[in-house]
Specification:
The protein is α/β, with parallel strands linked by helices. About 35% of the residues lie in helices and about 15% in strands. The chain is globular and about 35 Å long.
Length: about 140
């Protein structure tokens, strides 16, 4: 239950601290992505997701449903790409909460897109903006 606890604690903290106007959680689907179709070696060296974590995903989804948090999934598209698309929409300032450093490429002061980078634990994060990236 570590993933469920950590995810739920982070979600509650972000909502409490940031009081967002909009909130959503993006997930990958099991469908083959367009990148994998283009290149069969895409993510070939990546470790398999641990079964203990996978077993907790339905519980995380249940938490999101109970809290009425929209889940955003698009077959054939990774969650990172869904997040990138949302940051380029006209919703206003966007904060991405993630432990994935790949999403730093979406940081854009002009678009008011920042990242709350989860370094460790459920209570600590680091704010990533263009100034942070250039240091």
């Amino acid at each position: 239950t570590n993933a469920v606890y950590g995810f739920t604690s982070r979600l509650i903290k972000v909502v409490g601290d940031e009081k967002p106007d909009h909130l959503g959680v993006a997930f990958d689907t099991k469908a083959l992505t367009f990148r994998k179709e283009m290149d069969s070696t895409y993510k070939a060296g990546r470790k398999e997701t641990p079964d203990l974590f996978l077993a907790q995903l339905p519980l995380i989804r249940q938490v999101l449903e109970t809290l009425a948090v929209p889940v955003i999934e698009v077959d054939g598209v990774e969650a990172d790409d869904v997040i990138a698309t949302l940051t380029h929409s006209e919703v206003g300032p966007t904060t991405i909460v993630t432990g994935d450093r790949d999403l730093f490429q979406l940081v854009d002061d002009e678009r008011s897109t920042t990242v709350a980078y989860i370094a460790r634990g459920v209570s600590q994060h680091e704010w990533v903006d263009e100034a942070w990236i250039s240091t």
